[in-house]
Write a structure and sequence with these properties.
- Belongs to the binding-protein-dependent transport system permease family.
- Keywords: Cell membrane, Membrane, Transmembrane, Transmembrane helix, Transport.
- One of its GO terms (cellular component) is plasma membrane.
- The protein is an all-alpha fold and 280 residues long.
- It has a domain of 170 residues: MetI-like fold (Orthogonal Bundle), CATH 1.10.3720.10.
- Helix content is 73%, strand content 0%.
- It is built from 13 helices and no strands.
Length: 280
């Protein structure tokens, strides 16, 4: 009798959890679905009452308008170059710094680490003008490198890597590698890197998506349409008095597709990293 009651309670509890997750998933996915609906509909559907919730047949037509207004594919290539370069550099610097902060002792280590973390709370808008002046004096305006340079040092990435290395890489393994004659960089490359690959996937997705969605700094330093990233190019579609929302959201929809592809490719490593961290 008690087993039947326990099974019934477990079934009701699981049903409630699944129902809750379904509702949350619906509210999370609906904005993307609505964006797709608007991308396939004429501009008039944006303010229609009742709202349009069924996809239309204007996806190709709206996207053709986007191609006529902005260098969409060139902007996508520029964005991919910026995001991939920043992601690779951040992973390299953050993992090296995280390894050093986690496994080495040197004077001022804690002060330096907390100084890096403190920069997270500083609003990026405060440094916009001096950073722009430095980039302008260096002659980097309208160069993609100018859109990358501010994001190479990632305090959150350093913190995440330090925590992951500290918990996942045993000190005994480091000492054994040193006894075998490995240099510090050889230990990083041959011992640490294979262990922290799940954290690489997590940090990589975070950095890639954040840089992909960055607008303010890129809008400030990129003025030539040939150097536009996709966010700056899409913003130029909104400069007219009468905005074609179907065209605008069609561009936004296709600009979102690479992010979904990146997440689908690395989601297993991303989930395994989260699961491993929760178990530890």
């Amino acid at each position: 009798m008690s087993r039947e009651v326990g099974t019934k309670k477990w079934g009701i509890g699981r049903l409630a959890i699944y129902l809750f997750l379904t509702v949350i998933s619906f509210f999370s996915i609906f904005p993307f679905y609505w964006m797709f609906v608007m991308a396939t509909s004429p501009s008039s559907a944006y303010n229609s009452i009742p709202p349009t919730i069924i996809p239309g047949d204007q996806l190709v037509a709206n996207f053709k308008k986007v191609l006529e207004m902005i260098p969409f594919f060139q902007s996508m290539v520029n964005t991919l170059i910026v995001c991939l370069t920043v992601t690779i550099v951040v992973l390299f610097i953050s993992s090296l710094a995280g390894f050093a902060f986690a496994k080495f002792k040197f004077p001022g280590k804690n002060i330096l680490f907390f100084s890096i973390l403190f920069t997270i709370v500083i609003p990026p808008q405060l440094g916009l003008i001096p950073q722009y002046l430095l980039v302008a004096k260096a002659g980097l305006l309208d160069h993609l490198f100018a859109a990358m340079i501010l994001f190479f040092l990632n305090p959150l990435g350093i913190f995440l890597m330090r925590q992951y290395v500290n918990q996942s890489v045993p000190d005994e393994l480091i000492e054994a590698a040193k006894l075998d004659g490995c240099s510090n960089f050889r230990i990083y490359r041959s011992v640490v890197l294979p262990i922290i690959l799940p954290a690489f996937a997590t940090l990589g997705i975070i950095v890639f998506t954040s840089v992909w969605g960055e607008f303010l700094w890129q809008f400030t330093v990129l003025r030539d349409p040939e150097s536009y990233t996709i966010q700056v190019a899409l913003a130029s579609l909104n400069n007219t008095n009468k905005v074609d929302f179907g065209m605008l959201l069609s561009g936004v929809f296709w600009a979102t597709v690479p992010l979904l592809i990146v997440f689908l490719i690395f989601n297993k490593l991303f989930i395994s990293s989260i699961a491993e961290g929760s178990v530890k």
